[in-house]
Amino acid sequence: MLEKIRQTAAFLKDQLPKMPETAIILGTGLGELVNHIAIEKEIPYKDIPNFPVSTVEGHSGKLIFGKLGSKDIMAMQGRFHFYEGYDMKQVTFPVRVMKEIGIKTLFLSNAAGGMNPDFAIGDLMIIRDHINLFPEHPLRGKNFEELGVRFPDMSEAYSKELIKKALKIADENNIKVQQGVYVGTQGPTFETPAEYRYFHIIGGDAVGMSTVPEVIVARHSGINVFAISVITDLGVEGIVEKVSHEEVQKAAASAQPKMTLIMKKLVETF
Ligand code: HPA
C-alpha cells in the first residue's frame, strides 16, 4: 500500500511545480464550486496511477488543481462510494495520497437525510461529529506507523476551529446553518422509517452514504477536517416520505448557492 501511495503522490508532484495544502472533496451540493476555481491542471482519475477506476458510467471523476481565491487547492470532482463496490482501502486511497503530497486540511460535502425534527429540506448541517456504521473499517488490517497510529484518537474528528469560522461566515451572510451528528451507512437503500428512528435514537441528526471513511483516514493521517451536509430529505417520525435520487439532487441543487458561499469563504480565509 505504501508503495502505491508514494507512486501516485510522485506522479502528481511531477504534474505541477507546487502541491497545495488544502483539498476539497466536491460531494453533492458543491459541484458548482468548480466554477470558482481558477484551474491550473485537471487530471482524469483514469490517468492517475493506482486510482480506483470508476464503475459508474458518466461518473468519471477528475482531480483539479488551482486557486480558490488566493489559496492553492486540490479538488476531487467525484468520490468513491462503498456502495459502488469499492473496498474501504479504495474509497480512502485519495486521502492517503493527499497526505503524501502535503495536504493539511480537507473539506468535504455530502447529501444526507435529516432525522432531527428541527431540520427542513434544503438546510445545511455542519457536521460536528459522526457515528460510523459502515460494515468495513478503512483502518482494518496491518497498520503502517508511517501513515498513522494503530489506535487513532477521534475525540475531535471535525475541527472545532473550522466549525467556529464557518458559523461566523454563515452568520455574516445571513445563512441559516444547523449543526449535528452524521451517521455513515453503506446504502444504497435509503432508510426505512424504523431505521431513521433508530439512527435518531442513537444520537444521529442526519444520515448518508459517504464522508465517514474519508474522515477516518484523514484523521489517521493528521489532516484537519471540515464537512457539511445538505439535508435533502427527512426521516423524521411521522413524516417519512418516499425519497428518490432525483429528489435528493433537486434539494441539493437548491441549497447549492449557500453551501458554495460558505465553503468558498471558509477555504479562502481559514
Ligand atoms: N439516507 C441515506 N443517504 C442519503 C439520504 C438518506 O435519507 N439522503 C441523501 N443521502
UniProtKB/TrEMBL annotation:
Asked whether the keyword Ubl conjugation is assigned, the reply is no
What InterPro entries does the record tag this protein with?
Nucleoside_phosphorylase_d, Nucleoside_phosphorylase_sf, Pur_Nuc_Pase_Ino/Guo-sp, Purine_phosphorylase
Domain named Nucleoside phosphorylase: residues: 23-267
What broad taxonomic lineage does this protein's source fall under? Bacteria, Pseudomonadati, Bacteroidota, Bacteroidia, Bacteroidales
Q: Which one of the record's GO molecular function terms can you name? A: purine-nucleoside phosphorylase activity
Ordered alphabetically, the record's keywords are: Glycosyltransferase, Transferase
| Pathway noted in the entry | Purine metabolism; purine nucleoside salvage
Protein name (database record):
Purine nucleoside phosphorylase
Enzyme class, first EC level, given as a word: transferase
| Sequence similarity | Belongs to the PNP/MTAP phosphorylase family.
